[in-house]
């Protein structure tokens, strides 16, 4: 059973290697706003959410937002080809079960927003068209906060 | 012991199982079973 | 030899104890790693406590991702070839629920198994064709077992998920309520007319190593077997019926001792 990641709690530490070979280590990201998105290729609402994640990555990546999507698939080749076709360029890592568990990432789709101090500020499960508006508004708020 | 139809079914099924094991399909089964996709539960 | 032993054991134990234990085992949350193993019965892997994988959900997933499910078909084939549809009678939580609800005092609606073919239609259309073309797991989306074991428990346990309950969820609840009500009046309606896993196992009943045998000369056609049958069949008409879940109630109840378990060789 997957647990609830409390808003206001310290984001659990993790270091994941993306499909491009880059290591995303949360401890190195203090001072930056981090967006995590847990998804899977076989999850229909996840697939609907990814274009919004790509748009957020393109729009706010340049403002310093760190985006990391975490695929719960076990087949790296399949994830690669899945991302290639629509031209998704956001960073993606295959899940680490312990990390997923620490974030309560069992039920997907699931987004987590971490502020510059490493505090969990926003989580959302499921995706319906338009859900990204609340996420974007939260991202803008967090990006506007000053570094610690 | 006379060859029965269930023997044949059993051999075919064992063959399928072995093929599946070689193809590590159990990993896909595991990944999907623990996915908890909200859509699959009818929540989306 | 082993089958004879199994038969002897099954006749000694109370079936509801095995059904309850199976329900507990499939949803015991003790060994999360076992989700690579198929459950021999219909038990939703979306249940917060599930430890094994639903075979129908898994088959459907492989159809959606367009891969051949050799592993799962192999497991189902082995079970089917050895014991036929026995899992439905002894190991399925949803079957158990149907047995329990039918015990409630209410007027009973006897239905023939004439529409039993519907379960094959569910298997082909809802588990196979629709997921293949829509890439969405439509059987799971509508499955009442999933509503009962996953949808409702998750919403009960997790307030943060309640905003998700939309038309699909309430449709699922409607389907579940419909079947729960029907279960009070009719024996195992889901197993007899809908269950795609039962449909798969049904195919093996004629050939399995474990068989029911009726001694024609001893049988008095008293229909006591049908009175106690989980699936409302007369075992003497066709002991190899695809609807038989080998619950063995007829073996216990036959006043002439005319029904017994036997190996295919006998």
Strand-pairing-aware structural class of chain C:
mainly alpha
Q: How many domains make up the 3D coordinates of chain A?
A: 1
The largest sheet of chain C, given as strand count, sense and whether it forms a barrel, is: 2 strands, antiparallel
Beta-strand share of residues of chain C = under 5%
Low-confidence segments of chain C: none
Tell me about the biggest sheet of chain A? Answer: 5 strands, mixed
Kindly state the mean pLDDT of chain C as a whole number? 94
> Averaging pLDDT over every residue of chain A, what do you get?
94
What is the H-and-E element order of chain C? HHHHHHHHHHHHEHHE
The second-level CATH architecture of chain A is 3-Layer(aba) Sandwich
Count of runs of 4 or more consecutive helical residues of chain C: 14
Helical content of chain A stands at: 25-40%
Plain-language structure description:
The complex is a heterotrimer of chains A (148), B (44) and C (266). With 148 residues, chain A is of the alpha/beta class. Chain A has a single domain (15-144), classed as Glutaredoxin. Chain A is 30% helix and 22% strand. Chain A has helices at residues 44-60, 76-84, 97-102, 132-144; strands at residues 15-17, 23-25, 34-39, 66-71, 92-94, 110-114, 120-125. In chain A, a hairpin with a 5-residue loop joins strand 1 and strand 2. Chain A is globular, with a radius of gyration of 14 Å. Chain B has 44 residues and is an all-alpha fold. Chain B has one domain. Chain B contains two helices and no strands. The longest helix of chain B has 18 residues, at 5-22. Chain B is elongated and about 55 Å long. Chain C is mainly α and 266 residues long. Chain C has one domain (2-202). Chain C contains 14 helices and two strands. Chain C has helices at residues 2-12, 15-26, 55-64, 70-83, 86-90, 93-102, 118-134, 138-142, 144-157, 167-185, 189-193, 196-202, 224-228, 249-253; strands spanning 210-214, 259-263. Chain C has a two-stranded antiparallel sheet. In chain C, helix 3 packs parallel to helix 7 and helix 9 packs across helix 10. Chain C is globular, with a radius of gyration of 19 Å. The chains are: A alpha/beta (148), B mainly alpha (44), C mainly alpha (266).
């Amino acid at each position: 059973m997957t647990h609830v990641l409390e808003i206001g709690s310290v984001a659990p530490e993790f270091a994941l290697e993306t499909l491009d070979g880059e290591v995303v280590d949360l401890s190195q990201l203090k001072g930056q706003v981090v967006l995590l998105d847990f998804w899977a290729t076989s999850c229909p609402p996840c697939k609907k959410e990814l274009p919004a994640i790509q748009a957020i990555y393109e729009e706010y990546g340049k403002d310093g937002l760190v985006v990391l999507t975490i695929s719960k698939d076990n087949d790296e080749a399949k994830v690669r080809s899945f991302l290639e076709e629509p031209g998704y360029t956001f960073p993606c890592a295959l899940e680490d079960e312990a990390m997923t568990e620490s974030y309560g990432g069992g039920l997907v789709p699931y987004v987590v927003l971490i502020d510059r101090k490493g505090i969990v500020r926003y989580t959302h499960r499921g995706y319906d068209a338009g859900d990204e508006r609340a996420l974007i508004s939260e991202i803008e708020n967090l990006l506007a906060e000053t570094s610690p | 012991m006379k060859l029965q139809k269930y023997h044949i079914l059993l051999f075919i099924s064992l063959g399928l199982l072995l093929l599946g094991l070689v193809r590590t399909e159990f990993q896909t089964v595991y990944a999907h079973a623990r996915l908890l996709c909200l859509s699959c539960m009818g929540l989306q | 030899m082993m089958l004879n032993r199994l038969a002897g054991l099954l006749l000694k134990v109370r079936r509801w104890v095995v059904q309850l234990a199976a329900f507990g085992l499939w949803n015991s949350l003790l060994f999360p790693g076992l989700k690579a193993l198929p459950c021999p019965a219909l038990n939703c892997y979306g249940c917060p406590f599930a430890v094994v994988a639903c075979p129908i959900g898994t088959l459907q997933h492989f159809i959606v991702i367009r891969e051949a499910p050799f592993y799962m078909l192999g497991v189902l084939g082995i079970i089917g070839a050895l014991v036929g549809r026995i899992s439905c009678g002894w190991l399925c939580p949803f079957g158990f629920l149907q047995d329990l609800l039918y015990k409630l005092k209410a007027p009973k609606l006897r239905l023939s198994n004439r529409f039993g073919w519907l379960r094959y239609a569910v298997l082909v259309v809802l588990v196979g064709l629709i997921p293949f073309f829509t890439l969405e797991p439509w059987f799971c989306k509508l499955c009442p077992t999933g509503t009962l074991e996953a949808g409702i428990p998750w919403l009960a346990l997790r307030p943060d998920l309640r905003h998700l309950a939309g038309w699909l969820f309430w449709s699922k609840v409607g389907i579940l309520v419909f079947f729960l009500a029907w279960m009070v009046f009719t024996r195992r309606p889901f197993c007899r007319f809908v269950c795609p896993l039962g449909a798969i196992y049904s195919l093996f009943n004629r050939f399995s190593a474990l068989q029911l045998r009726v001694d024609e000369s001893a049988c008095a056609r008293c229909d006591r077997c049908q009175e106690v049958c989980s699936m409302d069949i007369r075992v003497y008409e066709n002991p190899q019926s695809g609807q038989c879940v080998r619950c063995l109630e007829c073996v216990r109840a036959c006043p002439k001792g005319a029904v017994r378990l036997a190996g295919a060789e006998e």
